[in-house]
Every structure is written in C-alpha cells, then in structure tokens.
C-alpha cells in the first residue's frame, strides 16, 4: 500500500491522538506535555525511538512506511496530516499549518497567496512592517531608540569592567604594541541573559552559542510580533532570513581551547548559523544566509532582502544584524592602524574628528512587498524605494575609500528607487568620524547631488555620534533611524558637532549638519531619506527610504485583532508585574502586540588582568543559574493584575498553573514536571 493510498485509514485527529499516546509512552511523559506541533527532535525522539514508533505505526495502519518518514514530516500534527490527507512534502511555496501556499493571516481573512513564486514589480516598494532592537543605552524598542535620538543621548561609556580591564590596556600613544588609545565604547546590557527553554535550546547548547545568535533570536521574535506575525503563522512560509554579521570574538575564544569544545561548538560560532538558527526555530523555508562585508554587512543584507522580495523568491524577509565586542583584540588592532578615537567619541563631520568608537548592536527588520502588507492590514512604518551595492575596486589601499564608487552607489540606488536628488531630505551617512573618511564621503555625496542653490534642504545624519560604530550592525541602525525620521517628520541632531571639518566644504550643496531636533527640511511632498554604509574592504551600500503611504479604502487599518499573540507568549503571564504594558493588538494601534521573550540573568565575571581566556564565562547563557529566570509578563487585556503574579525565579517554585522551572533545568527535568506558564508553548 502506498503512502497516498488512504483506504480506511483513521482521520487526522484520531491518528494524531494515537501518535500522542504512543509517543508519551515511549518518552515516559504525560500526554499533556507532548506538543503535536513541536519537532520530534525537540521532543527528545532519538533515532532508536523513531524506528520503534515507525514500526508501531506500520502495524497500526497495516501499511509499509518509509523509514525516514518521521524526519520528513517532523512533528506529530504534520505526520498525521500527511498520512491521512495525502499531503505532499512541503515546498517553500507552502506554509504548513496554514494551508497550501497560504499564510495564516490569509487563511483568517479569506485571502490567498499562490503556492509558487509571486514576483512583484522589479521596482515595487518594500514595506518595513516590524522592528526588533537591542542597542546601547538600554534600548530594546523603536520607541526607546527614538527617545534616545530626540533627547540627544550619548550611549558611549568606558569599557565595563566585566568585559576587560581597559585601563590595563590603555596607552595614550598610538601604535603601542598590544595597547589601545581608547578605553571607550558602547555596550549592550546583560548579553548573558537568555531564556534557553523559550527557544527550545538545552542549557548545554546555550552555553556554546555565541551571544550574537541568542540575541538575534530575541529580536527576530520581537520584530515578527510587532509586524503582527506570530510564530505559528510563519511556520513553513516562504520567509527569508538575511543577517549581517562579521565579528567572531566568541568563536575565537572557544577555538582557543580545543579540549573545551563539544557537539554544539561549531554551530554555536558559525556565522551561517546566525541566520539558519532563526529559520530553523521558526520553520522558515525562504533563503537563509549570513552576509559579511564588514561595516556594510547589514545594509547589504537589506539590499539582498529587497531583491529576494521583488523577484518572488520570498514573501517575507527578516533582515538582521549583530555586533558584539567581547574581546579587546580587534580594537587594539584598529588602534594600531590609527582608526580609533583617542578621545572616545565619534566627532562626525567635526573639526575634532579623530577616529571611530567601537559599539555593539543587534537588530532586525521585517520586510514585505508593500502590496502584500497593505492587503494583510499590517503596520507599515516606512517603505524602501530602492537600494544598490557596489565595490571600490582598486583604490589607494585595501581599506582606502573610493569616492567614485560611493557616488555611483548613491546614484544607482536613486535610479532603482525612481527618485531625484531634489526629493532627498536626509542622508544618514556612514560618518565614522575619521578626519579623511568624512570629507571623502561628503565630496562623493556632493558629486551625486550635483550643484544646488537650495541650501539647508538635506540633513547629514550620523547615528554613530550617539552609538559609536556598530560595525556589521551599523547600516541597520542607520536604516531604523531613517525609518523613524520619515515616520515622525523630524530629524534629531548629531552629537559632538561644534565646527565643520575644514576639509569639508558644503558650499553649493543642499547639505546641513543638524545640531538639534528639527522639522523635516523639505515641506510638502513625501519624506524621503537615503542611508549609506561602507565596508572597510570597499563594499558600499545605499538604501532609499520613504514615509509610508496613507491608508485608504480596504485594508486602511490592521485587519484582524485576533492576530494578537502566539500561544507561546500568551501562556507566559509571569514576571515583574510592574513591567506590564499594553500588549494587545487593536485596529489602528500600531503598537507592539506581545512582550519580549523573557531574559535570564547571571552573575558578573570580573578578571584582574587586562583580558583573559576565562573572562568570556560571563557571556555564556544565564540559563545555568537555578534562580536566573526573569520572565516578562504576558498580555493582560484588562490591565495589570491587582497584585503581583508569582515570580518564576525559583527552581522549582509552585505557581497557580503548575511548577515553574528555571531556564537551567534540563529537558528531562522539565519533561518530568507539569509545564509552567513560563515554558509552555
């Protein structure tokens, strides 16, 4: 009997029930703990158990089955559907639980999406529908980022002691071997904080995973939720993931001691897995890749995302970026080349420009074709009109910028976007604050714009003056700033600017350097901005961003408030009740709909030396701590509860809905106990 010859086979619901009973017996766990949508591997099904279950299933159905069937149909629900409905193995044009070739949102609204490629126009605007952020200064949302920009906050600090002893490495003379002229940077808080169980990762594997990957999972979740796309709706969809990443401090630390390696070390440090892990966790079938073009990595990733959407290769793309500074080594090398600011600030376009300040950041934006986003009633924050990428070629040196290529990439992006220089009200510049790099960039922009008598109509923005240089994540930070500027119709001022660099001449150009928050400089018409990002190996990128179009007619507001939250978020109403905030999606609200994933805390690690191989213990996942869970609240439709809900910090701690286990509990421990509201899918 063939797989598709159904005969008198049981229905999907009956077969799923049978599979759950047998799986629970084989795993020695209550049936209530077996999630039919969770992967067999995640449930703990070994190859031996898979063979056993497959044999029992053959006997139950009285039919021959492929020995690899459990891996091809990787969950109970998928296997039951396949065996009873004859569902063919999924292709990237199909979306699993939501139906063949349809997103869950489309099923809910009665709209359909073709199962095959759905190319849009080669120039169709691309909507930015969701953003997730972790930036210096405690920034974890677009609103918080906008406040930082408008308030003129400088997020640069001295290097935290838990990273390394910057005083011991400091030397005021440049190029001193093994020393740095800078002891400043911009850093994220609690990079060790990670709820491994939330993402179905064991504590042992979490320790081996680069914090960049862990943070990317968090911001991806948040970006999708802000876009009104809960995790369940994404499963099996043609969603791509493209991540800009170039720093490998954690991997170098792990590689320094081969004896400390393990089965998760390679995947924990590989750049490709930074993207692939997101695709795996959300079950996304679009292209998944990491991009390393140094400082332009994330903007190149955005460009590739736009291309993938316009070609029909993807229906949704998560474009992300990550940069963490876990070791002083790269900074010491930059110091030797004279690229680092000895004064600890990015004085972009200023006469005091003396180099960059290294910084950290992790972020992601969810992109969709504008027509699809409007059809599905999603929040459109801004649109990407066009983008371009090119290379300097042979310049005066490998790291020397190419003015002609910078001019060309801007013009090419304008051509792709169908805009002219006169429409641009903001250029968010690469602007590292180097004495020659800034003048070269402005000269290239002047050449692209051409002579202009409309002085003061185009601002030169520099988010690096607030955050430092986020390297691989710099372009994404600039893009999100531009999105916020066109959305709000304001341009925050640059910091650390007093007097124009004497090598920069703005005469005959539309440019000005904003020193305080100002209104959009071009009244009337649509607000349009450009964002530049240049890699130190010569790969240049430019993206054109425009304010979102006004909504009119059908789809003028988010279509369905039942989008709300994924089951995983809804069933996690624990944590600090004082942090409860509105988390329910309502039509027209444009507000985040779900809380962020909970984050664990771990003790700080200090080392008396300048830097040692043991210092990165502080960057391991906080999931080892038995008292480390700090769950954020789930959505409360009626507002905060009258009294604080029980803490999920104890391990175990009795709560109203079961036993709460801290993130460090092993999978076997968690399986042997009732699942808490903190770990329920």
Automatic annotation (TrEMBL):
The ranges of region (Disordered) come to 84-126, 546-567, 587-681
Q: Which organism was this protein described from?
A: Streptomyces caledonius
SUPFAM superfamilies linked to this entry: ACP-like, Thiolase-like
Its recorded name reads Type I polyketide synthase
User: Which PROSITE patterns does this one have?
Assistant: CARRIER, KS3_1, KS3_2
Q: Which residues form the Carrier domain?
A: 10-87
| Sequence ranges assigned to domain Ketosynthase family 3 (KS3) in this UniProt record | 123-547
List the Gene3D superfamilies: 3.40.47.10, ACP-like
Keyword hit for Transferase: yes
The UniProt record lists the keyword Signal:
no
- InterPro entries reported in the protein's UniProt record: ACP-like_sf, Ketoacyl_synth_AS, Ketoacyl_synth_C, Ketoacyl_synth_N, PKS_assoc, PKS_Beta-ketoAc_synthase_dom, PKS_NRPS_Biosynth_Enz, PKS_PP-bd
Q: List compositional bias (Polar residues) regions by residue number.
A: 102-115
Q: Which UniProt keywords apply?
A: Acyltransferase, Phosphopantetheine, Phosphoprotein, Transferase
């Amino acid at each position: 009997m063939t797989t598709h010859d159904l005969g008198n086979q049981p229905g999907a619901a009956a077969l799923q029930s049978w599979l759950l009973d047998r799986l629970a017996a084989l795993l020695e766990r209550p049936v209530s703990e077996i999630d039919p949508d969770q992967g067999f591997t995640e449930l703990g099904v070994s190859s031996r158990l898979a063979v056993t279950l497959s044999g029992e299933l053959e006997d139950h159905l009285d039919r021959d089955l492929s020995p690899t069937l459990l891996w091809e149909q990787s969950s109970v629900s998928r296997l039951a559907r396949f065996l009873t409905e004859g569902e063919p193995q999924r292709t990237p044009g199909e979306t699993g639980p939501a139906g063949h070739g349809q997103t869950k949102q489309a099923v809910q609204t009665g709209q359909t999406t073709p199962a095959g490629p759905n190319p849009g126009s080669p120039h169709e605007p691309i909507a930015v529908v969701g953003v997730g952020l972790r930036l210096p200064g405690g920034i974890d949302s677009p609103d918080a980022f906008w406040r930082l920009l408008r308030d003129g906050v400088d997020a640069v600090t001295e290097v935290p002691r838990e990273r390394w002893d910057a005083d011991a490495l400091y030397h005021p003379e440049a190029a001193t071997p093994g020393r740095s002229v800078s002891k400043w940077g911009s850093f994220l808080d609690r990079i060790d904080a990670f709820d491994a169980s939330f993402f179905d990762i064991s504590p042992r594997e979490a320790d081996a995973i680069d914090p960049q990957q862990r943070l990317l999972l968090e911001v991806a979740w948040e970006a999708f939720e802000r876009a009104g796309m809960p995790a369940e709706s994404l499963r099996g969809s043609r969603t791509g993931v493209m991540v800009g990443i170039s720093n490998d401090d954690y991997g170098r630390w792990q590689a320094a001691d081969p004896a400390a390696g393990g089965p998760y070390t390679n995947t924990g440090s590989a750049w490709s897995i930074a993207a692939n892990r997101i695709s795996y966790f959300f079950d996304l079938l679009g292209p998944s890749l990491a991009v390393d073009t140094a400082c332009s990595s994330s903007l190149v990733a955005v460009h590739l995302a736009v291309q993938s959407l316009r070609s029909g290769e993807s229906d949704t793309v998560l474009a992300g970026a990550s940069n963490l500074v876990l070791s002083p080594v790269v900074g010491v090398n930059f110091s030797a080349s004279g690229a680092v600011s000895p004064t600890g600030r990015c004085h972009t376009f200023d006469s005091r420009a003396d180099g960059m300040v290294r910084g950290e950041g992790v972020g992601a934006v969810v992109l969709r074709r504008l027509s699809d986003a409007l059809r599905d009633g999603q929040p459109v924050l801004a649109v990407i009109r066009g983008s371009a990428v090119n290379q300097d070629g042979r310049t005066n040196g490998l790291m020397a910028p190419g003015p002609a290529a910078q001019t060309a990439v801007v013009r090419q992006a304008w051509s792709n976007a169908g805009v002219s220089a006169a429409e641009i009200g903001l250029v968010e510049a690469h602007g590292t604050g180097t004495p020659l790099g800034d003048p070269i960039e402005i000269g290239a922009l002047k050449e692209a714009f051409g002579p202009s008598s409309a002085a003061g109509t185009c601002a030169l923005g520099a988010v690096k003056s607030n955050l430092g240089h986020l390297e691989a994540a710099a372009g994404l930070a600039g893009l999100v700033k531009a999105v916020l500027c066109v959305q709000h119709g304001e341009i925050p001022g640059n910091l650390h600017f007093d007097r124009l660099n004497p090598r920069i001449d703005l005469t005959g150009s539309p440019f000005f350097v904003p020193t305080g928050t100002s209104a959009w400089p071009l009244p009337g018409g649509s607000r349009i901005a450009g964002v530049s990002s240049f890699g130190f190996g010569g790969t240049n990128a430019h993206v054109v961003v425009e304010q979102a179009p006004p909504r009119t007619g059908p789809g003028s507001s988010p279509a369905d408030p039942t989008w709300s939250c994924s089951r995983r978020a809804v069933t996690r109403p624990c944590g600090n009740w004082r942090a409860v905030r509105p988390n329910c999606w309502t039509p027209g609200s444009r507000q985040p709909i779900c809380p962020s994933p909970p984050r664990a805390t771990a003790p700080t690690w200090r080392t008396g030396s300048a830097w040692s191989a043991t210092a990165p213990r502080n960057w391991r996942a906080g999931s080892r701590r038995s008292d480390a869970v700090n769950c954020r609240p789930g959505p409360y439709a009626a507002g905060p509860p009258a009294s604080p809900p029980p803490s999920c910090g104890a391990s175990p701690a009795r709560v109203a809905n079961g036993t709460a286990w801290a993130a460090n509990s092993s999978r076997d421990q968690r399986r042997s106990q009732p699942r808490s509201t903190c770990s329920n899918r």
